[in-house]
Amino acid sequence: MNSRQRRGVILLILSVLCALGAFAGVLSVIADANSKVGPEVTAYRLRSDVAPYTTLDTGQFERIRMPERWLSANAVTHLGDIQGKIAVTTLRKGSLLQTDMIVDQPALQVGQQEVAIMIDAATGVAGKITPGSRVNVYATFEGKREGDPDQSKIIVTNARVLDVGRLTALEPDDRNQNRQPTDAVPITFALSTIDAQRITYAESFAQRVRLALVAPGSQTTVPDKDRTYELATDK
Question: Do 158 and 88 share a structural domain?
Fold first, then answer.
């Protein structure tokens, strides 16, 4: 091999080495970019402005892909999460949808209001009443005058439970100083105006308020003649 051929071989080897070096450099840049960006995930962006308290639907959002590391922890990544939700404030076109932008639709129907009362944990809840349950509300009252019989009354039927709160220790009030401290649970109901008045009256003036769980799907009402019970008239 003469000198010219040797130079050609050397140049060829150098060219191959340079190409390999450039290729390795490109791979290094890509790997570095991937390490900085990370895997992509799905997010949802608003197609247009959404007014506050508007019910959300899937057509209001467009699906996009973006690096997971750039997505906030409260971003919505599944459109199923908007079912039954409304906008809590004005949502702007182009914004990424996040969980703090939406809330559950109000559980109340037209003409209803939320009313919460404290129910004795031992006699009224027993761990079986949960949000969505239907209950009848019983209250026991002392006779109005001496010699009058005590009465048990069904004051509300088929009351819908919205929420069951945490167990709370209650001290006896001024009217019941001879009563021992009790554990009670705040129960929130969806009630009509008249039923709300009945249940708050019972909480204030009844000796005891008790909840009776109604079987799921049952909408049976109680006739007026059967709503009041006195032991003396029991046959």
Answer: no
State pTM to two decimals.
Answer: 0.53
Read off the amino acid at residue 199: I
Residue 22: pLDDT band with limits 50, 70, 90: confident
Classified as helix, coil or strand, 22 is: helix
Q: Are 38 and 67 in contact (CB under 8 A)?
A: yes
For residue 119, how many other CB atoms are within 10 A of its CB?
23
Name the residue type at position 132: G
Quick check: 27 pLDDT over 70?
A: no
Q: Considering 104, 131, 153, which residue would you say is the last residue of a domain?
A: 104
Interatomic CA distance for residues 8 and 1, integer angstroms: 11
CA distance 111 to 190: 10
Element (DSSP H or E) covering residue 139: strand 134-141
